[in-house]
């Protein structure tokens, strides 16, 4: 396929001008004159330089890669139809849709963009994290950094013993059963040639616990809606998990909250001060001391 530079530039300009800052989780500012987003804002959302993005709108620069186009599609909050059109304009075949796709729908992104002060994440049906809010990173660490099979939470659960330390020990066995039952259901739904089936094959090879639970043929097990975490800085957290499902892409938006007035609710106020790189320490030493005191008292 051949790139349509003029068509690509016009499409990008129109989509940028149609978006407002609040549509993508940005502050408008008092002296704003631009009707839509600025090129610099789009570049930031797409994780690229402003110069690179500007050249695309000016019909210049190299042909963008598929990875770059995927970032642009998410940054501009494109629908699946718009994403596919973008790829074709740029001279590429569109990615697959459905359960194997990682393009997050505009509607789910709009909800996610408004959760900046709440622990939340968007995951695939295999438990692969696509997006986290800053508070989500402070709660569970950066789970978008994993590659290969380790991107799946279930795979990490059975192959990395240290990963379980974040979860209450009394819940480990039931969570193991939930992950195995869920893996069976997704692998059966997607078929023997699916990524889900390949992931099951890897776990059967590498985890004796997974093999033992797999033999039980359990299905239909679900988390009870609560999540008990042992946070390295804040101690025990008793959270509720609300889920929003995208039926087309099989993505889940998970939002973690606590009962108002509860001890966990008060601890979550300290979560913004936790260092996302090292959750055992906080950004502000005063807050660090308070967090550790609460953790001990818990």
UniProtKB/TrEMBL annotation:
List the molecular function annotations (GO) for this entry: DNA binding
Stored InterPro entries: Cro/C1-type_HTH, Lambda_DNA-bd_dom_sf, MLTR_LBD
> What Pfam families does this protein's entry cite?
HTH_31, MLTR_LBD
Which intervals hold domain HTH cro/C1-type? Answer: 36-83
Q: What is this protein called?
A: Transcriptional regulator, XRE family
Species this protein is from: Actinosynnema mirum (strain ATCC 29888 / DSM 43827 / JCM 3225 / NBRC 14064 / NCIMB 13271 / NRRL B-12336 / IMRU 3971 / 101)
């Amino acid at each position: 396929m051949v790139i349509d530079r003029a068509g690509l530039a016009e499409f990008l300009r129109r989509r940028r001008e149609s978006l407002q800052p609040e549509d993508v989780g940005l502050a408008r500012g008092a002296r704003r004159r631009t009707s839509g987003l600025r090129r610099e804002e789009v570049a930031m959302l797409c994780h690229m330089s402003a110069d690179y993005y500007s050249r695309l709108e000016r019909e210049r620069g190299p042909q963008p890669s598929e990875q770059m186009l995927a970032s642009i599609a998410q940054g501009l909050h494109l629908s699946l139809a718009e994403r596919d059109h973008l790829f074709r304009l740029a001279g590429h075949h569109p990615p697959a849709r459905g359960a194997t796709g990682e393009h997050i729908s505009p509607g789910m992104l709009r909800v996610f963009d408004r959760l900046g002060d709440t622990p939340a994440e968007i995951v695939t049906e295999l438990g692969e994290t696509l997006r986290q809010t800053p508070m989500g990173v402070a709660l569970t660490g950066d789970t978008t950094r994993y590659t290969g099979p380790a991107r799946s939470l279930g795979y990490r659960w059975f192959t990395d013993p240290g990963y379980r330390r974040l979860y209450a020990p009394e819940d480990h066995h039931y969570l193991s059963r939930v992950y195995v039952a869920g893996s069976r259901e997704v692998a059966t739904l997607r078929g023997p040639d699916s990524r889900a089936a390949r992931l099951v094959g890897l776990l059967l090879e590498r985890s004796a616990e997974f093999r033992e639970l797999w033999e039980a043929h359990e299905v239909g097990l679900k988390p009870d809606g609560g999540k008990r975490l042992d946070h390295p800085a804040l101690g025990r957290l008793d959270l509720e998990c609300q889920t929003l499902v995208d039926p087309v892409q099989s993505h889940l938006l998970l939002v973690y909250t606590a009962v108002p007035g509860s001890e966990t609710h008060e601890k979550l106020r300290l979560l913004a001060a936790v260092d996302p790189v090292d959750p055992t320490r906080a950004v502000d030493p005063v807050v660090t001391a308070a967090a550790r005191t609460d953790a001990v008292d818990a």
